[in-house]
Specification:
Helix content of chain A is 37%, strand content 21%. Chain A has 271 residues and is α/β, with parallel strands linked by helices. Helices cover 41% and strands 11% of the residues of chain B. Classes of the chains: A alpha/beta (271), B alpha+beta (186). Chains A and B meet through strand 5, strand 6, helix 4 and helix 6 of A and helix 1 and helix 2 of B.
């Protein structure tokens, strides 16, 4: 993948702001919010015409579900990737429904051999329908399963090796998990296959009930930007993007966060 | 008042932000026997599919926390999920949320605690219908406009109305013609 630099998660609420970022070359859109064949949402079309790479980010495949991934969802993701002429797609190492009930949330799967087998099978089913690579994102988990056999680095590495998938590394998730589990986030960076990172999410969070929550509706903490710098000092990924999903701040605050990501990564500012 | 009837942009769901709008498909998933994985000795009963279902039930329906999980952390996750749903429903139904003022998140969580999400559009719609006559004027107008714009039977995903419609909610009436909505109060 080419180096795209600093990007942003495109959302309808901030489409006007995103449209006015002169240096932007990379954006991500929630795959389920895009029609596979109809018109693109206003603003997203313009980005495409400007030559901005737009990556569909799936949130509902439930790749970590014990059941086989639903064919219609996979086909939609593949069609949206075609529609956007996307260089890749992304999804999560997580499950979002079980027993016919939607969790409304990305939930962790056990870091067990059996669960690795299940997610690998679903990633392969998905890859069979895609015409571009897929990047997999490890999530922020508030709780762990009792039957974890692998640590996070071995778990992620095994899934990537067995599927050939790329890594979507969310440094805010790395930060949240390390804080909540009492582990060292930089030590995790040292054990992940950083050469497989397709792009990076940077997001904010907040503390509730003594737990750090990866909300995407709060400011990016300085500690997360420090992790961006630690990551880029080891292996700078081709793109890093701000991921904001609500409680949008004024444009100046968003611009400051994009500039802070540029500064921490050494990429040019896009604002 | 928005009269939009097309795609519902999904909120993003990493971590706390979560899967947004659910459409027609996908509310049914077979707990496929062929994918059932070996029961784990000492790791609690059942297949991975059963155990994932048990976890989702604990988080969305108040079912008991499955064995081996940290009950405190599951409770933190359950509350966070309800907080996130309240925010998503507030984005779809801003006047319904505003009608509750600072009590919105708590009131929504009480209503939603044993109701797994059917997407924020339907969650807000179901709650607004339940409140019915108790809705303050602005929230009643919001509901009336939605009723006039989309057909929703309470069981299946709402669909855009093709024909003109006149709908009432509380003291508000909404008239929809060719997709355009006008709200009137009595």
């Amino acid at each position: 993948m080419d180096a795209y630099g600093v990007g942003i998660g495109w959302r309808p609420e901030i489409a006007g702001f995103v449209a006015q970022l002169p240096g932007l070359r990379f954006a991500e859109v929630v795959a389920e919010s895009v029609h596979a064949h109809g018109a693109l949402p206003p603003g997203l079309d313009d980005l495409r015409e400007r030559g901005v790479a737009v990556v569909p980010h799936g949130v509902k495949l439930s790749l970590g579900g014990a059941e086989p991934v639903e064919a219609a969802r996979v086909e939609h993701l593949a069609a949206v990737a075609d529609r956007l002429a996307a260089p890749l797609v992304s999804e999560h190492i997580a499950f979002v429904r079980a027993g016919g009930v939607e969790a409304g949330h990305l939930l962790p799967i056990p870091r067990s051999r059996a669960a690795v087998d299940a997610v690998v099978a679903n990633v392969r089913r998905t890859q069979a329908a895609l015409r571009v690579p897929i990047a997999l994102e490890p999530i922020a988990a508030i709780f762990d399963w009792p039957d974890d056999e692998l640590d996070e680095a071995d778990f992620v590495t095994e899934i990537l090796e067995r599927t050939g998938a790329l890594l979507l590394l969310d440094v805010a998730n790395v930060y949240a998990n390390a804080l909540n589990r009492g582990t060292d986030p930089v030590a995790l960076l040292d054990r992940l296959p950083l050469e497989r990172v397709a792009y990076v999410h940077v997001a904010g969070g907040a503390e509730h009930d003594g737990i750090y929550h990866d909300t995407h509706t709060d400011a990016v903490p300085p500690a997360v930007l420090d992790l961006v710098a630690e990551l880029c000092a080891r292996h700078r990924p081709p793109a890093l993007m701000l991921e904001r999903d609500g409680d949008y701040p004024p444009a100046d605050a968003l611009r400051d966060e994009l500039d802070a990501i540029a500064k921490a990564s050494g990429y040019p500012v896009v604002t | 008042m928005r009269a939009g009837a097309g795609a519902e942009p999904g909120a993003h769901p990493d971590g706390q932000a979560g899967p947004g709008e659910e459409r027609d498909r996908g509310t049914r998933t077979a707990a496929g026997g062929e994918r059932n994985l070996t029961p784990r000795p000492g790791g609690g009963a059942g297949s991975l599919a059963d155990r994932q279902a048990g976890l989702v039930a604990a988080l969305t329906s108040g079912a008991p926390v499955p064995p081996g999980f940290d009950p405190r952390l599951i409770e933190v996750a359950r509350v966070a999920l309800l907080r996130k749903r309240a925010g998503e429903v507030a984005r779809q139904w801003p006047l319904l949320a505003a009608a509750h003022g600072p009590r919105w998140a708590r009131e929504f969580a009480r209503w939603a605690a044993a109701r797994p999400t059917r997407g924020s559009l339907r969650d807000g719609w179901d709650l607004a219908r339940e409140l019915g006559p108790a809705l303050p004027p602005a929230a009643a107008e919001e509901l009336a406009a939605r009723e006039a714009t989309m057909r929703y039977d309470g069981e299946h995903a709402p669909r855009p109305r093709r024909l003109p419609a006149v709908k009432r909610a509380g003291g508000a009436w909404a008239v929809q013609f060719a997709g355009r909505v006008r709200v009137v109060r009595r």
